Each structure stands twice: as structure tokens, then as C-alpha cells.
């Protein structure tokens, strides 16, 4: 039986992207990137919504594996490519991702189907993208929340956590990075 983890990089006002969809404020430093690599190294399956998938497809290109790419970028690219993925989208007809094995489409990812996917997993399932993760948070399926809070406000946009959900969480770990980013890890209370 697996556990479900939601990880997001967000502004201090709680947004993963601005109102216009841009998220350049969230580009991690090498130190933060290395920490993300380490924190995500135990993930056995990744679940993305369509927009997060379109963002993460960059890791399937040659760019992150080039000689010019920093070590932390190459490390993440290899780690990302090796992890199977479920893409939740009713608007994508098919997926063809050369060099990335185990990518499958789940057209209707209901909370019940997500719970079944997590139950079938052998270890940590990571859910990425505030919209699809919001469904999991609302359904009470998320076991672990990891937020990398960037010292920046965006004044509104896509919220990391959905409105209208009340739940108790227990702070498990924290870390402050040299650039002012704070990592917060919460588990179910």
C-alpha cells in the first residue's frame, strides 16, 4: 500500500503560479533543487494533471541532460525519467513520450480511482499540480504535504492548496535555505 505526497513550490501568499499562469518566481536555486532531488528520490509513481504534465515534459528533452546542464538538473532528469507516471487528463487523446517509460493516461481520475492507484503502489506516490492535487486534498487522500515557500508574493493566482478544505496537519520537518526558501513538511495529524 502506497502513500500519497503532494509537493509544491509556492509564493508566501500561497500561489504556485501567478494569475497569468507564469511561475518564474519559483525557479529553484541549486541548493533547493538538490533538496528537491533528495526529497523526491523515494517516489515510485508520479501523478500529474495536464498542465503540470506539459510543464514537466521539459525533462524528457535533451536539454536537461546536456553537458551544459548543472549536475542537480541532470540528476533530476534521470530520476524523473526513471519514475512511472500517470497523467490525469480528459483533454489529451494519447501520450507518446520517447525515452520516458511507464507514462499512462487516466482520462477520468476520480478520488476513488486515485485511491486505488495509491493502494496498488509500492511506496510513495507523488501528485503534482495544484488542480489535480486539490482534488486529492479535498478527498482526504493526501498523507504528506511538502511546500517549498519562496520569499515572493504574487498577489493572486493558482493556489497551492484548495479553498474550502479544513484538515489538521502536523509539522514533521523544516529547512531554511540560503536564498530564503523555507521547506515545510506536514503529515496527517
From TrEMBL:
GO molecular function, one term: 5-amino-6-(5-phosphoribosylamino)uracil reductase activity
Region forming the signal peptide: none
Transmembrane segments: none
A biological process term (GO) from this entry: riboflavin biosynthetic process
Superkingdom assignment: Bacteria
InterPro entries for the chain: DHFR-like_dom_sf, RibDG_C, Riboflavin_Biosynth_HTPR
Domain Bacterial bifunctional deaminase-reductase C-terminal: 4-182
Protein name, UniProt field: Dihydrofolate reductase
